[in-house]
Amino acid sequence: MTLSQSHHIRNQGASKARAVRWLLVLLLCLGCQAAWAGEALFAPLRAYLVGTGVDPRETSRWLSSPRLRFEARRLAALLSKPERSLDYGQFLAQKSIARARRFKSRYQGRLSQTQRVTGVAPEVVVAILAVESNLGSYTGDHLVFNMLASQAVLDTAAARAKLRRAWPVSQRKVFKKESFKARLAKRAAWARQELLALIRLADKARVSPFSYRGSLAGAMGMCQFVPSSLERFGADANQDGRVDLHRPHDAILSVATYLKAHGWRRGISQREMATVLYSYNRSRIYGRTVLSLAARLK
User: Fold this and answer.
1) C-alpha to C-alpha distance for 91 and 152, rounded to whole angstroms
2) Whose CA is closest to 151, among 199, 197, 191?
3) pTM
4) Angle subtended by helix axes 94-106 and 284-297, to nearest 10
5) Distance between CA atoms of 251 and 225, rounded to whole angstroms?
6) What is the DSSP letter of 167?
7) DSSP state of 242
8) CA dihedral of residues 262, 265, 271, 277 (deg, nearest 10)
């Protein structure tokens, strides 16, 4: 190898090293820009949480975490689909009914004990668990903190703009409607309250608020409780010192505790049943499906 060839190879190596360094710098800058954009998007949420008494340092740590992101696509999937498009008929299929009957038989002891305490019939509890999570087969694997934090800023123009880009193109004109903005603002207020409840749950359990996984809406476990419902109505049926809604015993008693607190009692009429179920899930077809499935499980 000649001296000139050696010099040329060294120059090539130096050029490649500079290129790699510049690429790393560029990626770092892009990462910082994304982080700054994220922090700006969630800045109103930080002000809200700190204003309600949440520790400022913890709040900053959560909202600057690389685990947090605005879940635009998932929210679009959740919010753009009308309730009537959901397939509730699947829960009344013979296969689903047979599975619910097996569950009812397996946990008959816990269900009967729960009925004595709350007055809620076993078939109603099983029907709710079947419709909510297919008896625990699908409870959701989304970070609840992310889903609630994303919804909590939907009353800001920046969040709405991000959501619009993920929304089905054919439906984007809805963003021009004041009624839709009002709907998003109402959901944001709800999500902020639920996020506070999640933070309290995590603090009590001494875990990270990012530990909880659930549905697109932020509901958890077999009975799909949002954080405030878990906080108020979660029941430790097996007396192990914690409420775990992924365990049938706790989920069964938690559902019945919720229903009793909302007016369920022995001898309740069909219309009153529908009213209580509407408080559980604000959908008339949901309530009709639960009652139809319960009737088949008697």
Assistant:
1) 32
2) 191
3) 0.85
4) 60
5) 9
6) S
7) S
8) 40
pLDDT attached to residue 29: 41
What SS3 state is found at 198? helix
User: Each residue of 64-89: b (16+ CB within 10 Å) or e?
Assistant: ebeebbbbbebbbebbbeeeeeeebe
Rounded distance, CA 119 to CA 294, Å?
15
Q: How many CA atoms lie within 13 A of 239 on its CB side?
A: 1
Q: According to the 3-state scheme, what is the secondary structure of 72-110?
A: HHHHHHHHCCCHHHCCHHHHHCHHHHHHHHHHHHHCHHH
Contacts 24+ apart (CB under 8 A), 170-178: 171/80
Amino acid at 73: R
On the question of pLDDT at 13 being above 90, the answer is: no
User: If you count them, how many residues does the chain have?
Assistant: 298
Average pLDDT over residues 116-131: 98
Burial 219-248 (b: 16+ CB within 10 A, else e): bbbbbbbbbbbbbebbbebeeeeebbbebb
Q: Three-class SS of residue 172?
A: helix
Beta-bridged to residue 142, according to DSSP, are 214
Q: Output the six-digit token pair for 1.
A: 């190898």
What is the structure's pLDDT at 32? Answer: 40
**Coil, strand or helix at 259:** helix
What residue spans define the domains of the chain? 42-297
In the chain, the DSSP E strands lie at 142-143, 213-214
